[in-house]
């Protein structure tokens, strides 16, 4: 108890008055991980998450850059054929593409590299300078049910502002790497950041869904080799989640529980612990596709326990390192953490990782051509059971 009180005091003292509420908004915060909030030169929020075994001092530098004003808020246009909203964020055209290490915008600032992060760090989260959603938010008194009904109405040439928030999550100050190259302690810090930011972003007015993800590899379209991910806070329920909600309505509220029970007793399990199971899904679309589910119903990271986060850090690292053992070179992937919407389906939709890779052989990729890209009708190239066996062998070569 004395240790908890000491570390709790350190957390509070290390957070600036600018946004102390945001830094303390998660319902479960590991007291070993200090959270420190500040602002960048143009007003964007920056939050440092310090490892439990950090060697960094509590002080953080001030961002003294002279920055241009932030770009105008993007806008959304509705496709009347599907009802889906497309964000038009032209400022993203100016993003940095594959910079050298000495000009890495996600590295700590130093002479000659006026990057986004003023100080050395363990894990850092900041608002994207050119976001797809935000920085504008809905009115504080906006009613979610009314907003969702308006978003789901279909019409011609409908436009709305792309409200919300986009954040960058830097896993490490190193120039190259990915989640799978982290230590267990650092992986644990990133998971704590996901949980804390999920809670904070879910509380913003107008946010309907929070999506943490990592894109890894040039084949996926990654423009920065720096180990990082992102978090999108959408002003609507995404199309994929809308379809999931429809499936829950069609099947019943036990969909996730029944699915997990079937997979845990089937031939496609890759890893299973006390709190989480990783498996290749029965109807996998991609040559490499892995899902991870918690054993109890948890709608999002914010509602996971410390014990669940501890186990996930080790299990997830073992999974990613096993995937990289499949071939002689690192495997590109999208690691997508699906969470329940903020205001709908929270008793039915469970937190779930869906990791996918287009790599179907050492030197071959699956491209989305006519059937998949145009019609959304998928054709699998690898039998899920065969893929599961190959992944189990690769994971078995990784030290636990």
From TrEMBL:
It comes from Agromyces ramosus. Its cofactor is Zn(2+). Belongs to the galactose-1-phosphate uridylyltransferase type 1 family. It comes from the Bacteria. Pathway: Carbohydrate metabolism; galactose metabolism. This is Galactose-1-phosphate uridylyltransferase. Gene3D superfamilies: HIT-like. InterPro entries: GalP_UDPtransf1, GalP_UDPtransf1_His-AS, GalP_Utransf_C, GalP_Utransf_N, HIT-like_sf. The lineage of its organism: Bacteria, Bacillati, Actinomycetota, Actinomycetes, Micrococcales. It catalyses: alpha-D-galactose 1-phosphate + UDP-alpha-D-glucose = alpha-D-glucose 1-phosphate + UDP-alpha-D-galactose. One of its GO terms (molecular function) is UDP-glucose:hexose-1-phosphate uridylyltransferase activity. The keyword DNA-binding does not apply.
């Amino acid at each position: 108890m004395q240790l908890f009180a000491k570390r709790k005091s350190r957390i509070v003292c290390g957070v600036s008055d600018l946004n102390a509420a945001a830094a303390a908004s998660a319902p479960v915060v590991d007291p070993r991980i200090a959270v420190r909030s500040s602002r960048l030169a143009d007003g964007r929020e920056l939050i440092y998450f310090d490892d439990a075994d950090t060697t960094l001092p509590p002080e953080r530098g001030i961002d003294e850059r002279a920055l241009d004003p932030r770009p105008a808020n993007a806008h959304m246009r509705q496709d009347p054929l599907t009802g889906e909203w497309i964000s038009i964020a032209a400022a993203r055209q100016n993003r940095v593409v594959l910079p050298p290490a000495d000009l890495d915008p996600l590295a700590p600032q130093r002479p000659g590299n006026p990057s986004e992060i003023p100080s050395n760090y363990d894990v850092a989260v900041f608002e994207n300078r050119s976001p797809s959603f935000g920085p504008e938010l809905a009115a504080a008194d906006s009613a979610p049910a009314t907003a969702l009904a308006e978003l789901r109405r279909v019409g011609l040439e409908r436009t709305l502002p792309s409200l919300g928030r986009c954040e960058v999550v830097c896993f490490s100050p190193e120039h190259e790497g990915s989640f799978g190259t982290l230590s267990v302690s650092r992986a644990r810090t990133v998971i704590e950041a996901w949980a804390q930011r999920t809670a904070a972003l879910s509380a913003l007015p107008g946010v309907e869904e929070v999506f943490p993800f990592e894109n890894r590899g040039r084949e996926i379209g990654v423009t920065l080799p720096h180990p990082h991910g992102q978090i999108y806070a959408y002003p609507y329920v995404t199309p994929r989640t809308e379809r999931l909600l429809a499936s829950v309505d069609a099947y019943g509220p036990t969909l996730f529980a029944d699915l997990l029970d079937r997979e845990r007793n089937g031939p496609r399990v890759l890893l299973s612990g006390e709190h989480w199971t990783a498996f290749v899904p029965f109807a996998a679309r991609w040559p490499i596709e892995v899902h991870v589910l918690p054993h109890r119903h948890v709608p999002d990271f914010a509602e996971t326990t410390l014990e669940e986060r501890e186990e996930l850090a080790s299990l997830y690292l073992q999974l990613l390192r096993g995937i990289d053992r499949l071939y002689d070179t690192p495997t590109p992937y999208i690691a997508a953490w699906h969470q329940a919407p903020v205001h709908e389906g929270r008793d039915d939709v469970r937190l779930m990782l869906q990791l996918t890779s287009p790599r179907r052989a050492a030197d071959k990729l699956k491209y989305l051509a006519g059937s998949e890209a145009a019609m959304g009708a998928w054709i699998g190239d690898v039998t899920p059971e065969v893929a599961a066996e190959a992944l189990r062998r690769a994971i078995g070569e990784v030290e636990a």
